[in-house]
Automatic annotation (TrEMBL):
Residues 20-224 form the Histidine kinase domain. It comes from the Bacteria. This is histidine kinase. It comes from Paenibacillus phytorum. The chain holds residues 287 to 510 of 510 of the full protein.
Length: 224
């Protein structure tokens, strides 16, 4: 029965996801169809239409790209990697965006951290999702702290601490639900994907938040 339960849980999640994706993609498609018609009728403000169409296409692209992360590659190669290097390269990837938004990353890490068995790109993807959320929660900029330390001799923990607007209780309960977003241009897929990746790594993912004070996301991963 447990296996059955687990399977039916999975099915309903897939059903939810499929419905969500279809819905999220249908909206921009409807818009695109409408504008195609305007263009066909010889509309005057072509440039304006073009910009809207482009941004709708980009939205479809973003949603499909995020969904692809969920489709597992044939071979997931878990390899021992330095979490320190993964964090550093993630910071390099989003640094330009951080500078534009007046955000500083402050990294503190223990020396001689053990390696983590992981699929590096997936872990990077999940950290990027978390740091993007942290930045988006601080529209006026500020400091984001990243801490790395070992927990016992079997795990490594990464904390992402922002001083953004925080997450109210009701939203906290819905975190990780597909397409749950409070942002005008959000996809509501980031946390769900991050959750899935950490789960695949047999890790733990915990979010603590206080409205008006900020959010701490903790990721704990088994180490070698
Ligand atoms: P998206 O970023 O596209 O909205 P996510 O799944 O990444 O989707 O996040 C879902 C929601 O959780 C966000 O819309 C936001 O309301 C909330 N959230 C996540 N991380 C944070 C954070 N660090 N600070 C404040 N709110 C957050
Ligand atoms: Mg996000």
């Amino acid at each position: 029965t447990e296996e059955l339960l687990r399977r039916s849980d999975k099915m309903s999640l897939i059903g939810q996801l499929a419905a969500g994706v279809a819905h999220e993609i249908r909206n921009p498609l409807t818009t695109l169809k409408g504008f195609m018609q305007f263009l066909h009728q010889g509309a005057a403000n072509k440039k304006e239409y073009y910009d809207i169409m482009m941004s709708e296409l980009e939205r479809i692209e973003l949603i499909t790209t995020e969904m692809l992360v969920l489709a597992k590659p044939h071979f997931i190669h878990y390899q021992p990697k330095s979490i320190e290097n993964i964090i550093k390269s993630v910071i390099t990837l989003i640094e330009t965006q951080a500078i534009i938004n007046n955000i500083q990353f402050v990294v503190a890490m223990e020396k001689h951290l053990p390696l983590v068995l992981c699929e590096e790109n997936q872990l990077k993807q999940s950290f990027i999702n978390l740091l993007k959320n942290a930045m988006e929660a601080m529209p006026d900029g500020g400091q984001i702290n990243i801490q790395l330390f070992s927990v016992g001799d079997k795990a490594v923990r990464v904390l992402f601490h922002d001083r953004g607007h925080g997450i109210p209780q009701d939203a906290l309960a819905r975190l990780g639900e597909p397409f749950f977003t409070t942002k005008e241009k959000g996809t509501g897929l980031g946390i769900m994907i991050t959750n899935k990746i950490i789960e695949d790594h047999h890790g733990q993912f915990v979010v603590e938040s206080k409205v008006g004070e900020g959010t701490v996301v903790s990721v704990t991963l088994p180490s070698t």
